[in-house]
Amino acid sequence: MNQILKFFLLLILLTGSKSWAQKKILVAKTTTDNIIIDGKFNELSWKAAPVAGDFVMFQPDNGKPIDSTKRTEVRILYDNEAVYIAAVMNDDQPKKILKEITQRDNVGTADVFGVFINGFNDGQQDFQFFVSASGVQMDRLATEDGAVAPDNFSQDFSWDAIWDSKTVITESGWAVEMKIPYAALRFSKENVQTWGLNFYRSIRRDRQHYTWSPIDSEIRSTRNQNGILEGIENVKTSTRLFFIPYSSYYYEENESGSATKFKAGMDIKYGINDSFTLDAILVPDFGQTRFDNVILNLSPFEQEFAENRPFFTEGTDLFNKGALLYSRRIGGAPRFTPQDLDTANETVTDIPNTVNLLNAVKISGRTKKGLGIGVLNAVTERTYATIENTATGARRRGVVEPLTNYNLLVLDQRFNQNSSVTLVNASTFREGNYRDANVAGLLFDLNTKENAYNLSGDFKYSAINTGQNYEGFKTSVNFEKTSGKYRYTIFGKYISADYDINDLGIGFQTDYHNIYADFSYRILNPTKTFNTFRTDMKSSLELENTTGRIQDNFINVSAEGNSRQNDYYKFLIQLNPLESFDFYQPRSSGRFSYVPRSVTSLFVFSSNYNNTLALDINPSVKMYDESGRIDYGFFISPRYRINDKILLIYGFNYFRSMNDRGYVASDATDIYYAQRDIKTITSELSGKFALNNKMTINLTTRYYWSFSDNHAFFTLEDTGYLSPTAFGSNVDENFNVWNFDLSYAWWFAPASQISILYRNNASDYRNVIERNLTNNLKNLFADNLNNIFSISFRYYIDYNSAKRWF
Predict the structure, then answer these.
(1) What's the rounded Cα separation, in Å, for the pair 768 and 398?
(2) Are the C-beta atoms of 780 and 762 separated by less than 8 Å?
(3) Distance between CA 353 and CA 533 in Å, rounded?
(4) Given CA atoms 500, 506, 509, 514 in this order, what sign does their dihedral have?
(5) Distance between CA 635 and CA 27 in Å, rounded?
(6) pTM for the structure as a whole
(7) Could you report the per-residue pLDDT of 751-775, keeping only the tens digit for each?
(8) How far is CA 673 from its chain centroid?
(9) Cβ atoms < 10 Å from Cβ of 291
């Protein structure tokens, strides 16, 4: 009898376990109706389509069924052109539905519905489509773990598809109807399709996130927890060929005069097959991209800028593997001095700010078996500056950037739904006797079947040809527990002295090895105090390879979380308990300078953005084990949402460094440091006025002022310590920057846009410190203001639609 009882108990356990793991299934129904995307679901086909319901909370109370007053029901239809989604989201307080109008791919303060589709049902990559209650579209490619909500930007929001949607606010909630053409998806050629599927709903006022197929938040990987879509059969996809011609007009005026310019070109997108897409840009135009936040850069490294050019931001998930691509290298500032320059008698003037991009092509996609392939090729033109003879005044041209070809190849094989091995190769070829470069990398990212543990790492090798060739390598390994309340990481890496990725990538530090560890605890369900809470303890030690000296070290403890009122708090304290040495500040190979011990603390507060008035605050302080040396600053940013159409955000950042010590100059024998006071003020204002969900007016302004006041000088000794010295030159620095952008954008048709931009900008750099703000502004606007007015028109043409025109 006991054996029989044990048998039945075991059977119940196994059956229950299988039921819990059983994925939800929804069957799509074919339709011959002409589905009108109006959010009303009047077509008869909708009534016969099966319903997906019983949504479950993902965050904050993971696993809790949705309340009956928020019942959500979704149906799917399909034909030979597209899949259609109808979603009804009940809400017992429809007047409280948040529906801020934003630009595309910006959630704002609004309820959201989304659908996640994986055409190969392999857990590797989701195509995710979101619509806010105000009708704003968002879409992204999801290949990273952990992100479900559309306000989590760890996924690739740069990807933009062409699809249609309509939302309607009703007396019982709100509804959305979507049409997603097959051209926006990737799936096999099989007659009978089986897709991975999930639906998402957020209730913004409560900060609650729900999914149709339950997602266990203890498991970092979310894509392989999707449900199943069945029923799509015998669909024939149309040719994926799109043309986006553009034309732009520019008028520029400054103290040198005025000029006009007209540009025209085209982007082409072609679906090579069901898996791969070719993107080509012919005669590019980046004149309306966002301005760079230029700073007074006192560090030994170049300033790294964000990429704002659409071609290099759209669909770049594969190309970011291995971090070997810094796309601002392509068409950035010239990097070379003319090879025939007579340095004794000639100087270089009129150096262009950027190098023209002639053309660029990228091919990317992923096969049914999980092989992702990405190919990027770009060519920049030969660029000249003026060379002037200081004695005779004679002028001639000299090459400051040769004709250059940039290439990136990525092969990313995913397997077991949650693991991958990746091969990356980045190469740069320049005409003539300029440097060429090649960097290759092998990466692995392995997860256990239950997604409880992760082992990842890489090996990268660089080879530079400058006439005197040199080679280097970098390797790392990371072991991590990735599930549960308690998680940890152990990480180590080694970088050789001659490892160099800076022809197509960006990397600042080499010739060191490092070991890092962290331990964290988080809650998975709300408590009486917190909706979310997490605490971390991290430790790192970094040693320079050649000397064995400590290059960096820290121990920090942090705690962060969202209160039940959805205000965010974070506190961090960091100790740098050991003396270390900076091998980069001296700007000379083999030299280094002493860095004292220090302690840093910071606090972050961000009030709930659901409120009409919200506030971000971030004070911080860093104290050094050196007399009178301290860094402190604070950031404050109020944001005021006047209504669903108008939003204003102001940010003020103040930073002060007292008795900082850093490099100021060098000569044939000595390296000079200064003890200096640094002050930086940044003031930014941004505003949005949305006329509707396809038309917005945007304002962005930034004023930046920073100075470095040197009041004692030192010579750097070979030991890394400083000794007082006399220094006659004035190396104080005072820098001001102003940017103003006022733009109007109208998405008058899918992927088609008219944009009008007025921009003015100015900068002023001098070696005399001006402590009066009014005088700084006078100097800034006296002769430096540059005004630009531009109009750009882009129109999206689908080859299949164009065929019908003729």
Answers:
(1) 33
(2) yes
(3) 46
(4) negative
(5) 51
(6) 0.89
(7) 899 999 999 999 999 999 999 999 9
(8) 36
(9) 15
